[in-house]
Every structure is written in structure tokens, then in C-alpha cells.
Amino acid sequence: MRLIDTARFIVDHNVGKLARWLRIMGYDALFFNGSNDSRMIATALAEGRVILTRDTQIMQRGVVTRGQLKAILIKSDRPELQIHQVIAALNLDCQFRPFTICLECNQPLEVRSKEQVKELVPPYVFQTQNQYMECPACHRIYWRGTHWQAMTERLQQFMKS
Ligand SMILES: [Zn+2]
What we know:
With 161 residues, the chain is of the alpha/beta class. The protein is built from seven helices and seven strands. The longest helix has 15 residues, at 146-160. Zinc ion (ZN) is lined by residues 102, 104-105, 107, 135, 137-138, 140. Zinc ion is lined by residues 102, 104-105, 107, 135, 137-138, 140.
């Protein structure tokens, strides 16, 4: 069993693009948009989240150096190298639970039937797609269209390179 099956993240604003990539894989990745490091650390501790950041000061906090809180210092400023680092460091599965988390607000998606989304998606999508998910928070409708596939394929490309 992968230890990391339960991994949850809090993504610092300086590596914000990581949140979307992690959500594409199906990992719970909260985006932290504040400047108050102590609040980010408190949330990470309370919710058992791994911190992803480029901020070296966070790495020097006692809770991190003592190992109470896991934090990963992201080395690159290039998003594809950043996600590569996280995947390698934690042995994440690119195909963990794709298509399960809202890319915008990190909420678990809910299954919708084709009939339920009939009025909500473009006609060509309705004709060609059978599986739909909805975000209960922002009400975006997702389907496994070409965009999702392209993102997943890019992710796999990163890991090969
Ligand atoms: Zn949403």
C-alpha cells in the first residue's frame, strides 16, 4: 500500500500552479493565498497537510525541523519541474484518482447522469460524452474531454523526461 494514498496538501502562493496539477491527479490540494505563514502552518497541522513552498523560512520552523509537519521546499520556478519534484519526493501516482476533484476549488466532485446535465453542457459534448461530474461548490460540470486527457498526458510526459 502506498503511504501517500492519504496525502493532502497545502500549496503556498509562490508555487500556486502545483495545486491544479495535484487536483488533476486527484489529490486534495488546498491553495494558500495569504502571507501569514503561521496560519498556513496551523492549517497544515490541523488538517494533516503537506506544505509545498519555495519559502526557506518555513523549512526552518521548529514544527518542520522536528518532523511534526512535513514540508517540501520546491527548487525550481518551472511548474513542470515543480510537479516532477513533488511526485518523485512522495512517490505520488499520476493516475491516483483523476477526475475526482474540482480544479478550481478543490471540492470532491459528484457524479451526474447524462440527463441531469443536458441543459448545462454544449450539445456536441452531450452527444459525445457519457460520464459527467459536478462540483457542489462552484457547480462547474466536468467531463473527460480532450482538455482533461491532454493534461493527464502532459503529466505523464513530465515523468518520462
Ligand atoms: Zn468547484
